[in-house]
Write a structure and sequence with these properties.
By secondary structure, the protein is mostly helical. It has 19 helices and no strands.
Length: about 400
C-alpha cells in the first residue's frame, strides 16, 4: 500500500510538471534569442578576423572553437548558437542524471527519494534552462564544470592519479572561456589535500592545466596582453564602477534588500558613470573588486547577504523542502554536503551585483548531490517518508501554479 501511495504521488507530480514543461515549450518564442552580451558579434569577429588575431585581442577562446564545427555544418550563426547550447544542455541532463544515480547507489538512498530528486533535476533543466537559451557560454561552461564534478567524484570513489590530469585539462579549457573558472581551484586543492600522494596528485593536476592554459592563450601572452578573455568593460570605465554606483544609489533610496532582478543593470549607463567620475573625481568609485573589499566592506556584505537570500529563495521554489535536507545534516562531516555551499557563497560574494542563477550552471548539480547525500540520514518509516515528500513538493507546486496564474 505504501508503494502504491508513493507511485500515485510521483505520477501525479510528474504529470503536473510535464504540463508545466509543455506550457513553457509552446509559449516560448523560439524564433528569438537574446544576445545581450554580444557573443554572436564576438563569434562573427572570430570567423572574420581569424583565430590568432582574436585571441590576441581577447575572446572566449574555447567557446568559439567549440562553436565553429557546428557553424561549418549549419552555416547560420543564430542557429549554431541554438543547436550548440541545446546540445550542451542535453549532455548536462544525461551526465547529471548519471551522477545522481551513482550517488544514490553510493549512499544506498531509498528508491522513492532518488526518483523524486532525479525528476526534479530533469524538470529544473527543462523548465529553467531550456526556455532561456541565450547566446552566452553558460551552457558550455556548465557542461565542463559538470565533467570536473564527475571526475572529482570518481576520484573519491576510486582514486586514480590520471583523474587529476583530466580535471586539470578540463579546468584549463574553462580558463579558456572565463576567468571565473579560477574559483574551482580551492575545491580541487581541497580534494588533493585529502587524497593519498598529495604531491603526486598536485603535479598530475598542474602539468596539464598549465600546458592547456599556455597553448590556448599563447597568442595573447606573446603579444603582451596576458591571458585572453572576453572583456565586456569599455576602455575608460568598468562594471565594478557601474555596479557600485547603482548599488549605492539603491541603498540610499530603497535599501539593498529591496533590489529587483535587473534593477542594478538598468539603474545607470556607462555614460552616467563617466559623468559621475567627471563631477566627483576618478577615485570616487572603486576600480576593482579588491578596492570594494577594502573600502566598502559593509556594502559588499549587504550585497552578499542579499544574493545568498535570493539564491536560497530561488532553489526553495524550484526544489522545494528538499533544499533544507543538506542544511539539516550539514555537520555530519560528509564531504558531499559542502561543495554547493562553498560555490554558492563565493559566487554571491564576488558578483557584487544581483547574482544570476545561470552563473551556477554545472555547479548546481552539487546541490542535488548534497540533497541525496543528506537523504541517507533520514531513518524514517515509509509513512513518515511519504509525508516528508508531500510537504517538500508543496513549494514547487505552489510556485508553478503561481507562474501559470500570472502567465495566463
Amino acid at each position: 500500500m505504501k508503494t502504491i501511495n508513493f507511485y500515485f504521488i510521483l505520477i501525479s507530480f510528474l504529470l503536473f510538471k510535464i504540463g508545466i514543461c509543455a506550457f513553457l515549450f509552446f509559449n516560448n518564442d523560439w524564433s528569438t534569442i537574446a544576445d545581450g552580451d554580444k557573443y554572436m558579434d564576438l563569434f562573427q569577429r572570430f570567423i572574420s578576423n581569424g583565430v590568432y588575431s582574436e585571441i590576441e585581442k581577447g575572446t572566449s577562446i574555447v567557446y568559439n572553437l567549440a562553436l565553429y564545427p557546428f557553424y561549418l555544418l549549419i552555416g547560420d550563426i543564430k542557429a549554431t548558437f541554438i543547436v550548440f547550447n541545446i546540445t550542451c544542455l542535453a549532455l548536462t541532463l544525461i551526465l547529471g542524471i548519471y551522477i545522481l544515480y551513482k550517488i544514490s547507489i553510493r549512499f544506498n538512498i531509498q528508491t522513492y527519494l532518488t526518483y523524486f530528486i532525479c525528476s526534479i533535476y530533469i524538470f529544473y533543466i527543462l523548465n529553467e534552462k531550456l526556455p532561456h537559451i541565450i547566446t552566452n557560454d553558460d551552457s558550455f561552461m556548465g557542461l565542463l564544470y559538470l565533467i570536473i564534478v564527475y571526475f572529482s567524484i570518481k576520484n573519491i570513489e576510486s582514486p586514480k592519479h590520471y583523474y587529476f590530469s583530466i580535471i586539470g585539462f578540463i579546468l584549463g579549457l574553462c580558463l579558456g572561456i572565463r576567468e571565473t573558472a579560477i574559483l574551482f581551484f580551492p575545491f580541487i586543492l581541497y580534494i588533493i589535500f585529502y587524497s593519498n600522494a598529495k604531491v603526486k596528485n598536485l603535479i598530475y593536476f598542474l602539468i596539464p592545466l598549465v600546458i592547456t592554459v599556455f597553448v590556448l592563450h599563447s597568442p595573447s601572452i606573446m603579444a603582451g596582453n596576458g591571458l585572453s578573455f572576453y572583456n565586456k568593460n569599455p576602455e575608460d570605465v568598468n562594471w565594478i564602477q557601474k555596479n557600485h554606483l547603482a548599488i549605492s544609489e539603491i541603498e540610499k533610496s530603497t535599501g539593498i534588500f529591496n533590489i529587483r532582478p535587473w534593477s542594478i543593470w538598468r539603474a545607470n549607463t556607462f555614460d552616467d558613470v563617466r559623468e559621475y567620475l567627471k563631477q566627483n573625481g576618478e577615485n570616487s568609485l572603486p576600480k576593482s573588486f579588491l578596492d570594494v573589499v577594502i573600502n566598502h566592506p559593509m556594502l559588499l556584505t549587504k550585497m552578499t547577504l542579499f544574493n545568498l537570500y535570493f539564491v536560497f529563495k530561488f532553489y526553495f521554489k524550484i526544489i522545494g523542502g528538499f533544499t533544507l535536507i543538506p542544511l539539516i545534516f550539514l555537520f555530519r562531516r560528509n564531504f558531499f554536503l559542502w561543495p554547493f555551499l562553498y560555490f554558492g557563497f563565493i559566487f554571491c560574494f564576488v558578483a557584487y551585483s544581483h547574482v544570476e542563477i545561470r552563473w551556477l550552471a554545472g555547479i548546481d548539480i552539487m546541490l542535488f548531490i548534497s540533497i541525496l547525500t543528506g537523504c541517507q540520514y533520514l531513518k524514517l518509516s515509509n509513512n513518515k517518508l511519504l509525508l516528508i515528500i508531500i510537504i517538500a513538493i508543496i513549494p514547487i507546486i505552489f510556485n508553478d501554479i503561481k507562474f501559470l496564474y500570472y502567465s495566463l
